[in-house]
Amino acid sequence: xxxxxxxxxxxxxxxxxxxxxxxxxxxxxxxxxxxxxxxxxxxxxxxxxxxxxxxxxxxxxxxxxxxxxxxxxxxxxxxxxxxxxxxxxxxxxxxxxxxxxxxxxxxxxxxxxxxxxxxxxxxxxxxxxxxxxxxxxxxxxxxxxxxxxxxxxxxxxxxxxxxxxxxxxxxxxxxxxxxxxxxxxxxxxxxxxxxxxxxxxxxxxxxxxxxxxxxxxxxxxxxxxxxxxxxxxxxxxxxxxxxxxxxxxxxxxxxxxxxxxxxxxxxxxxxxxxxxxxxxxxxxxxxxxxxxx
Length: 293
Known about the structure:
The protein is of the alpha+beta class. It is built from 6 helices and 15 strands. Among the domains are: 87-157, no CATH class; 184-292, Pdz3 Domain (Roll), CATH 2.30.42.
């Protein structure tokens, strides 16, 4: 057996072991710096990270309330009709019967109680007194006050009182009289009024308010006459010489202190032969005289 020691062989062994050690060191460093998949079949994971966004909150969060839909358009009430745009300028009333004149802008409307009395904005005249008129439309009522700017006009009320219709008294037929060619004519410089015209206005006072508009004039809180708001062209009142702005102070010398004064004159058509109307025009009093035939 040869026991001789070869130094070259030892150097090669050391060199190989050193090379293996260096490779091992590099391999461990590579595993530490670049993680490798656990198994050969697992794909490498991307090192790019993305933020996660959720469409809904997690159950542990406060529950999101559904947006409340606006119901303003659904609950908006329909506009209520009223007579606030109308002005009451004339009233004629007696037991169980009334006639009023309303004005809106340049238009006038005449309404009366009973069937066929007309309507405005769907409102019918229910009744009236010396200072105000009451209108009804379905389950609502409206009130207009005569020439009173301080109080609200045309306010709606839900309270409706039932009024029993009063039977109309039967009118006895009157003998038909022959009318002249015109109800008002000029004779020798004097205006002559046909008596039948006064009777006609007495029986149908609503015809008055279609031709003339009047409203109260007060002095110290008392009625001091009626002021002419308008006179329809070609009407009997225009032929009598009445003009817009005139204040009618008295009839046949009787001062106008209430609504009964002009009505007494109309009802006395069969007993009067002369008619005089005292008016105030341009701050001066004038007397208009007529004959009644």
